[in-house]
Amino acid sequence: MKSKLRIDKSILLLVIGLLFVFILRTLLARITNPPRLDDIFIGVVVSGSVVMLIKGYRCLRPPDWIMAAVLGVVVGISMYFATLFSPYPFWWIIRSHAGQAVVRGSYVFLAALGGLVIMRMGGPVLFRAARGEWRKSGVSIALGLAIALPLAVLNVFALQMSQGKAIAWQNPLAALGDALQPGIVEEVVYRFALLGLFWLVLRKSLPKQAPWLAGVLVLLVHNYVHFDELFLQAPLAALGMGLIMAVIWGLPLTVLALRRDLDSAMAFHWLQDVTRFLTGF
Question: Whole-model pTM?
């Protein structure tokens, strides 16, 4: 009975905490201009990653630090030169490309380190490039791209229908470079660091189910943070659209991350946005 109670508590605390954030932010948005949901969860992930880094930095290896730094630098440079990708002001404060480049590169660096600490502790998501498994990483990237291609085409058609716009072809090099922003940033923050943090909360009471429970929770969080405005205007529509996106595009990412690695998930996500940017959406 005690074990069952612990299991219920671990899940309930996470679910209640997540609902609290979403509901409170939506209510505050009716009277003021709070930070976007994505910015809030980035703050949570960075805070958790710093805690993990302080506690477990000794388990990191030199390649881990190098890979986290490379990701941060790539994100920073590609953000600085981005032309098709234009993020919201971070916490409504950082607006310039240079400022966004520094901020995004920095929090990707910290989130990657936090995720790597958790990975070295036996976490559920592998990052093969950081482990020096280059051949497997290459295979994973190819697998992610192959699985992503039909869904990327479907995404373009869905955007055409939902936005009522025709395809407007953009600079291919700009699309390739700018797609690194969501492809790296969102997967490192959500599918690597946040999923790992949720796994840490659940692993003691649910050691077997923790990876997938954490994966489902992150899948839902990641999808619904894109609907700040729609939650205000039409909450039921936001819930429905978020669920559809979670099943069609979020579920493959979660399966790739948990059954394969972060490398394949980043490749999948990157190609979705390459096609989106390339076609003018």
Answer: 0.94
